[in-house]
Amino acid sequence: MAHKVTTQWKGNMLFETDNPSGKTVFIDTSPENGGNNEGLAPKALMLSSLAGCSGLDVVSILKKMKVVVDDFKMEASGELTEEHPKYYHTVTLDYHFYGRNLDEKKIQRAVDLSVETYCGVMEMFRRFAKVKTNTYFHSS
Asked: SUPFAM superfamilies per the record (predicted)?
């Protein structure tokens, strides 16, 4: 199955890109690179895609397991190479779960299933970067 997106230049360094869902986002760069920070930076957007892909898996799996959490967030960070073309050589994805009586074993299983089996974006990242994951449980 192929995906297709259209990315349209909107002037200066700003682009608008669509998605097969029909939703759009803006892509821009910082003022020091000639942009106005009116959109998401391309490399950071890749980290958002990684977190979003895995997050969708985790929420879906937790729902099937009937595991309840009060809140869930992910923090993704990437280390860039020094030389051009700069790309992420190491990426860390931290999963944070919040709630009372968290079922840590099931939640970790959901994370592991996403990381090891289901998240296609994670697999793409593994083709060019070392990917590390950590899971944190915050009891309320």
From this structure: OsmC-like
